[in-house]
Automatic annotation (TrEMBL):
Signal peptide: none annotated. The lineage of its organism: Bacteria, Pseudomonadati, Pseudomonadota, Alphaproteobacteria, Hyphomicrobiales. This is Potassium-transporting ATPase potassium-binding subunit. The gene is kdpA. The keyword Transmembrane helix applies. Keywords: Cell membrane, Ion transport, Membrane, Plasmid, Potassium, Potassium transport, Transmembrane, Transmembrane helix, Transport.
Length: 569
C-alpha cells in the first residue's frame, strides 16, 4: 500500500461526499413534485407522457396497486427485451450480421437487465447488435434503475406519512426518476466519456495495422452512452466482454475515476433525499455513515490483500513489492482496482475493471462478502436504500427487545407484522444463494463449468449465485455460465433476488404508512446517532456473517490459508 494510493481513494470519497447534499436535495424536490431548474423544459414533456398513457398523476396507489404496477411494467420490459434479442437478426442496426440470441441466453439476458442485475453470459461485442445494445439493454438500464428509485421513494413516503392508505403513483415516480434524474445526468456523463476517448459511433468496427504487419479488427459502437447509464443506474453491464478493463470502456485514470464517482453518486445522494423527505436529515446521514464505514473497511482490506502480493508467486521469484498484479490493468494498479471492486460490490453495479477471480484469496473474499451483506453499501439506486431500511427496522426491533419497549423508527411502531415481512425479505438471499450453490456443486454437468478445481471452483459457483441473487452482475471469472443450467438457474436467482425481496418490502411500506406517526418521547431510542449506527452495522454483519460464513470458509478462506502456506489446488 502507498500514500499515493490512499490519496487517490480518499479524494474519490471526498468528491462523492461533496455531491451528496445538492443532488439529494434536488431528487427530493423531484419526487415531491416541486419545481426544479429543469421543470420549464421537462415539465411539458412529463405531462405529455401522462396524457398519452392515460395516467392521472394526481391519483395515488396503495402498496398493492403500486407493487402490481411495478410487476406488470417489469414483465412488459422482459417480454420486449426477450423479443428484441430473439429477433435480432431481422432488426435494423446490425452491421455485424449477428444471428438471434439463443433462447436460454436470451431469457437470462432479458431477466438480467430488467432486474438491474446485468449479469452477462455473453460477450457484448460479438453477440449483440447495435440495436440490441441501444433499444434493448440500454433502455432497460434506464427503466430498471428508475423502478428501483420509485420503490425506494414509495417506502420513504410510508415513513413520512401518518395514517395514509397510499404510497404515491408508480408511473409518476418512474417517469420522474428517468426524465429528471437519470436522463440529464447520463447525457452529461456520456459527453464527458466521449471527451475522454470512449467511442460513440454506429460503425461496426475499424481495422488497424499491427506492428507485426497483420490486420486487426477492433469492435466499435455506441459505447459512451451505454457506459454512462451503466454506472449512474448501478447496472454494470458492459458493451465489451471485459467490461471496464477494456480501453474503449475505461481508457484512462480519469475515466476510471468518473466511473466510480458515477456509480456512487445517485445511490448515496438518494439516502440524503430520504432524510430530507422524512424531515430528519440526521437520519439520512446516520444511514450514510453506516454504509460508508463498511464500504471503506472493504476497500482497505482488499487493497491491503492485493498489495501484499501472492506468496506462491513470491516463492517463484516475483518481487512482492509489486503486489498482486494478476488480472489488473497497469494503468489502474492495486489501489484503484481495489476501490473499484469494493464499490461495485458494495453497490449492486457489477461493472469491473479487474478480474476478481485473479485476486488473492482474501482479496476475492471481500467483494463476495460485500454482496452477501445485502447490496446496501449503498447498494443499487433505490434498492440499496430500501434494503438498508429493512436492516434499520430489524435493528430497532433488536434494540426494543434489549430494553423491553415497543420499537419505533421515525415515529412508527415496529410490530410483529413488519418483522414477519422483514424476515421473509432477508431470508431470500441465503435461500437462493446457498440452495443453488449446493445443488450446482453436486451436479456433474454443473461442476464441469468451473475453471479451477478445489475451493476456488466453489467460489466461482458461490460468487455467480451471490452476484445474481443480489442483483449485482459482476463475475468471479472462470465459470462457463452460458449453459442451459446456469442460464436458467441464474435467471431464476435474479428474479427471486429482485421481486421476491421487494414484495414483502412493499408490504412493510403499506403497513407503516397506515400507522400513526407519533412524536418522539423521552423513552424513544434515537436512530440518528452513533449508537444506532453501531447497532445497524452489527446487525448487517451478523446476518451476513452467520448465514454465509460456512460457505465462505470452504471457498475463499481455505484458498487464502492455502496461499499463505504456498499450496495450490
Amino acid at each position: 500500500m502507498t500514500t499515493v494510493g490512499w490519496l487517490q481513494i480518499s479524494l474519490l470519497f471526498l468528491a462523492v461526499l461533496f455531491v451528496i447534499k445538492p443532488l439529494g436535495l434536488y431528487m427530493a424536490r423531484v419526487f415531491r413534485g416541486e419545481r426544479t431548474v429543469l421543470s420549464p423544459v421537462l415539465g411539458p414533456i412529463e405531462g405529455g407522457f401522462y396524457r398519452m398513457s392515460g395516467v392521472d398523476p394526481n391519483k395515488e396507489q396503495g402498496w398493492l396497486g403500486y407493487t402490481l404496477a411495478m410487476l406488470a411494467f417489469s414483465l412488459a420490459g422482459f417480454l420486449a427485451l426477450y423479443a428484441v434479442l430473439r429477433l435480432q437478426a431481422h432488426l435494423p442496426l446490425n452491421p455485424q450480421g449477428f444471428p438471434a440470441v439463443p433462447a436460454d441466453l436470451a431469457f437470462n439476458t432479458a431477466v438480467s437487465f430488467v432486474t438491474n442485475t446485468n449479469w452477462q453470459n455473453y460477450a457484448g461485442e460479438t453477440t449483440l447488435s447495435h440495436f440490441s445494445q441501444m433499444a434493448g439493454v440500454t433502455v432497460q438500464n434506464f427503466l430498471s434503475a428508475a423502478t428501483g428509485m420509485a420503490l425506494a421513494v414509495a417506502f420513504t413516503r410510508a415513513l413520512a406519512r401518518s395514517k395514509a392508505t397510499t404510497l404515491g403513483n408508480f408511473w409518476v415516480d418512474m417517469v420522474r426518476a428517468t426524465l429528471y434524474v437519470l436522463l440529464p445526468l447520463s447525457i452529461g456523463v456520456a459527453l464527458a466519456f466521449v471527451a475522454m476517448g470512449l467511442p460513440q459511433t454506429l460503425d461496426a468496427s475499424v481495422t488497424a495495422r499491427t506492428l507485426e504487419g497483420a490486420n486487426q479488427i477492433i469492435s466499435l459502437g455506441p459505447v459512451a452512452s451505454q457506459e454512462a447509464i451503466k454506472q449512474l443506474g448501478t447496472n454494470g453491464g458492459g458493451f465489451f466482454n471485459v467490461n471496464a478493463a477494456h480501453p474503449f470502456e475505461n481508457p484512462t485514470a480519469w475515466s476510471n475515476y468518473l466511473n466510480i464517482f458515477a456509480m456512487l453518486s445517485i445511490s448515496a445522494a438518494l439516502v440524503y433525499s430520504f432524510g430530507q423527505m422524512v424531515g430528519n436529515r440526521r437520519q439520512g446521514w446516520a444511514l450514510i455513515s453506516a454504509m460508508a464505514i463498511l464500504l471503506i473497511a472493504g476497500v482497505a482490506v482488499t487493497y491491503w490483500a492485493e498489495a501484499q502480493g501472492n506468496p506462491i508467486l513470491t516463492a517463484l521469484g516475483v518481487d512482492p513489492a509489486l503486489g498482486n498484479m494478476e488480472g489488473k490493468e497497469v494503468r489502474f494498479g492495486q489501489a484503484m482496482t481495489a476501490l473499484y471492486a469494493a464499490v461495485t460490490t458494495g453497490l449492486s453495479d457489477g461493472g469491473v475493471n479487474g478480474m476478481h477471480g485473479s485476486f488473492t484469496g482474501l482479496g476475492g473474499l471481500v467483494p463476495l462478502f460485500l454482496m452477501q451483506l445485502g447490496e446496501v453499501l449503498p447498494g443499487g439506486v433505490g434498492s440499496g436504500l430500501y434494503g438498508m431500511l429493512v436492516f434499520a427496522l430489524l435493528s430497532v426491533f433488536v434494540a426494543g427487545l434489549m430494553v423491553g419497549r415497543t420499537p419505533e423508527f421515525l415515529g412508527k411502531k415496529i410490530e410483529g407484522r413488519e418483522m414477519t415481512f422483514a424476515m421473509l425479505a432477508v431470508l431470500i438471499l441465503p435461500l437462493v444463494i446457498l440452495g443453488f450453490t449446493a445443488i450446482s456443486a453436486m451436479l456433474p454437468f454443473a461442476v464441469a463449468s468451473i475453471g479451477t478445481a478445489g475451493p476456488h471452483g466453489l467460489s466461482e459457483i458461490l460468487y455467480a449465485y451471490t452476484s445474481t441473487a443480489g442483483n449485482n452482475g459482476s463475475a468471479f471469472g472462470g465459470l462457463t455460465g452460458n449453459t442451459p443450467w446456469y442460464n436458467t438457474t441464474l435467471g431464476i436467482a435474479m428474479l427471486l433476488g429482485r421481486f421476491a425481496y421487494v414484495v414483502p418490502v412493499m408490504a412493510i411500506a403499506g403497513s407503516l404508512a397506515a400507522k400513526v406517526k407519533a412524536p418522539a418521547s423521552a423513552g424513544t431510542f434515537p436512530t440518528d446517532g452513533p449508537l444506532f449506527v453501531g447497532l445497524l452495522i452489527g446487525i448487517i454483519l451478523i446476518l451476513g456473517g452467520l448465514q454465509f460464513f460456512p460457505a465462505l470458509a470452504l471457498g475463499p478462506i481455505v484458498e487464502h490459508l492455502a496461499m499463505l502456506a504456498g499450496q495450490t489446488f
